[in-house]
Design a protein that fits this description.
The chain is of the alpha/beta class. Helices cover 40% and strands 17% of the residues. It folds into 2 domains: 198 residues, 3-Layer(aba) Sandwich (Rossmann fold), CATH 3.40.50.720; 97 residues, UDP-galactose 4-epimerase, domain 1. Helix 2 crosses helix 5, helix 7 crosses helix 11 and helix 9 crosses helix 11. The mean pLDDT is 96.
């Protein structure tokens, strides 16, 4: 418990929650992010909070010095609108993971966890709304999301080879659409759950009566609440299994269905305006949790409706004008 854990990307959504989770479990935590500390999504005074540009090898060395456990959640990323419009920027995330692996090995770290994504999965397995759940082997033959997905898949392989060649114990989690409080909900990087909550909250506050939906609304996804994500992350991070593991929900829903859930939470019904030229990503995606269930007995504990209620309330509070 006296060893230092480093959370890279601590100023972001999942990273901020992970810092708080580790501190609550008694860990010593160094929180690292590129953004000015005052702009982090969450700041935990119990952590050693530092600003560093993890694209720079010397900053990576400074960030991981004396640490035993490194969590790499650092990335330039966002929802489908962002990653489709910024493929080169997303691929440059490979510099962060590469330099962190070099620095972690040099520092003699015991473990290194890389946060990957369901965007690594082959596109030809995600062409229907009634998609078969994606198991870990479905990442190959490789055909991931262009840009962001390719970077994640390459970085997974980097972790594997650092383990094989240098003995650094690496672990990989493949996140499936993590959502929850303190996530980005405006500005162009937001993901579907937060974007829908924001749009419904704005409609409620303005009495607009309408919501814009990207695509036809029939595309399907599964969404994983942040508390479940943290439990799954720690099980994989501390476990003996070294290949990638899904951390996701199996509760698949269409985007239209997700809008209906938020409407019911908000107590209103909106006209739906479909933007068919918007970025959509794959037609359907769902997580196969057979592996993580067999390894750790993990399954999500928070139903989608409960998690969305918490997220909607959090966003509504921030959009509601003060007295």
């Amino acid at each position: 418990m006296g060893e230092t854990s480093v959370v890279c990307g601590a100023g972001g959504f999942i990273g901020g929650h992970l810092v708080r989770h580790l501190l609550a479990s008694g860990r010593q935590v160094r929180a690292v992010d590129f953004k000015p500390i005052e702009n982090w999504r969450q700041r935990s005074p119990g952590a050693e909070n530092i600003r560093a540009d993890l694209r720079n090898l010397e900053d990576c060395r400074r960030a991981v010095r004396g640490a035993s456990f490194i969590y790499n959640l650092a990335a330039d990323m966002g929802g489908i609108g962002f990653i489709e419009a910024n493929k080169a920027s997303c691929m440059l995330n490979v510099i962060i993971n590469t330099h962190l692996l070099i620095a972690a090995h040099e520092a003699g770290a015991r473990r290194f966890l890389f946060a990957s994504s369901a965007c690594v999965y082959a596109g030809d397995k995600q062409t229907r709304t009634a998609v078969a759940p994606l198991k870990e082997s479905d990442a190959y033959p490789a055909d991931p999301e262009d840009g962001y997905g390719w970077e994640k898949l390459f970085s997974e392989r980097m972790c594997r080879h650092y383990r094989e060649d240098f003995g650094l114990e690496t672990r990989v989690v493949r996140y499936h659409n993590i959502y929850g409080t303190h996530e980005t909900y405006s500005g162009g990087r937001e993901k579907a759950p937060a974007a829908i909550c924001r749009k419904v909250a704005e409609a409620k506050l303005s009495s607009a009566g309408e919501i814009e939906i990207w695509g036809d609304g029939e595309q399907t996804r599964s969404f994983t609440y942040i508390d479940d994500c943290l439990r799954g992350t720690e099980l994989v991070a501390n476990g003996a299994y070294s290949d990638p593991v899904n951390v996701g929900s199996t509760e698949m829903v269409s985007i239209n269905g997700l809008v209906t859930i938020v409407e019911e939470i908000a107590g209103l019904k909106l006209r739906r305006r479909y933007r068919l030229d918007a970025p959509l990503g794959v037609r359907g995606r769902n997580s196969d949790n057979s592996l993580i269930e067999s390894l750790f007995g993990w399954s999500p504990a928070i139903p989608l409706r409960i998690g969305m209620r918490a997220l909607y309330s959090w966003i509504l509070d921030r959009l509601t004008p003060g007295p």
